[in-house]
Amino acid sequence: MQTQTSSPLVLAQTKSPLTHSIPMANYVPLFVMLPLGVVTRENEFPNEAKFEQQLNELKKSGVDGVMVDVWWGIIEAKAPKQYDWSSYVKLFQLVRKCRLRIQAIMSFHQCGGNVGDAVYIPIPEWVLSVGEEDSDVFYTNKSGNRNPEYLSLGVDNLPLFQGRTAVEMYSDFMKSFKENMSDFLENGTIIDIEVGLGPAGELRYPSYPETQGWVFPGVGEFQCYDKYLKQDFKAAAAKAGHPEWDLPDDAGTYNDNPEKTGFFGPNGTYQTEKGIFFLKWYSNKLIEHGDQILDQANKVFHGCRVRIAAKVSGIHWWYTDDSHACELTSGYYNMKDRDGYRPIARMISRHYGTLNFTCLEMRNSEQSADAKSAPEQLVQQVLSGGWTGKIDVAGENALSRYDREGYNQILLNVRPNGVNKNGPPKLKMAGVTYLRQSDELFEANNFEICFSFCYI
């Protein structure tokens, strides 16, 4: 990527009072992510007046729209198929009034337990009650610790939820969303549907949960020890002619370094026939999970003028280690000689979807050397894989930033070849979402830096 010299984030305007105009072909839409609890756990939309004022400020600054989590745990909280969209209708009406577009996230995960989670919104209580009787519906680590922030993909096709499978519940939720938000879909207010596919809405396993004591830069843990995924692995191993193979027992614990484990260390299990078989199985199960749910989303929203999107996590620590340990525990089988993100991009391309990636703002120089982190190379790898696969690629920052260095790093990724004044740039992102709207963002200095748009 070539070095950019211009100052903060400029994506969404065509003429600046400070500089020259740039061709519309270089235009990249800019969105701002709304607060996690803009609709409360009690399904209320408070502080409408203040919120409207902030939305109008965003609009004046050239922002195209907002991204918002639509929480399964709020909408279908009381009972199966009893959906209450009233607060989200109010929110969407206000966004439309402020002449902004909406990127809606189908958030099938718990809010709380991940970096930046400021509120707690569990998945529906009646779904959690199923887990009280059968805790194997949740992702499970080797020690048997359950994680209720997202249902295990092992139950995607099992009718354990009052006669419905997990995939059927997700599909029914999206159908109800379409029916109740038809006005916003038809008039172009809602332009993107990002489908939540795992914890934090990302296509990954919950391998590094802070709620279970994980601390950066731990390698995390594999999350496939519920009985359903155990059975699936044993069947796959037997079919491959190795019924004696079991799930890894040498991958360490959440906060280990790679070299402290038998699996990720030098000459580790991950390089053996058994380890390679496991990693292929583990990553393929994740891709199949995303493929199946995105297929449902495409069926539900067929005929709507929306793009389907899926979010991939920016796991940049241990990226320069031979093992890529935390990527592996998260389900991304990415190695020096194996691109783990290209198969994900191909899966998304089958659904004509957008790959949304995180950590656009991170620079290598800001990371601890002990973590063997390389966010800049990771972003380049994932974006290049998407562009090579001829799919739209969008992105967002992983952590809130209010400094020019962070914004400039985002710009480096938005159009890696810079602006082409004679037509479309060779490469550009389909959109960028800034994380996130907050009172801190609207403090005078922060807002001025963030939205003092200039042109690149």
From TrEMBL:
SUPFAM superfamilies: (Trans)glycosidases
Gene Ontology terms, MF aspect: beta-amylase activity
UniProt record, GO biological process: starch catabolic process
EC primary class: hydrolase
Record bears the keyword Repeat: no
Alphabetical UniProt keywords: Carbohydrate metabolism, Glycosidase, Hydrolase, Polysaccharide degradation
EC number: 3.2.1.2
Catalytic activity as recorded in UniProt: Hydrolysis of (1->4)-alpha-D-glucosidic linkages in polysaccharides so as to remove successive maltose units from the non-reducing ends of the chains
InterPro entries per UniProt: GH, Glyco_hydro_14, Glyco_hydro_14_CS, Glyco_hydro_14B_pln
One Pfam family, short name: Glyco_hydro_14
Catalytic machinery residues: E202 (proton donor), E396 (proton acceptor)
Record's keyword annotation contains Protein transport: no
Binding of substrate, residues: D69, H109, D117, K311, H316, T358, N397, A398, R436
Family: Belongs to the glycosyl hydrolase 14 family.
PANTHER family: BETA-AMYLASE 1, CHLOROPLASTIC (PTHR31352), BETA-AMYLASE 6 (PTHR31352:SF40)
Protein name: Beta-amylase
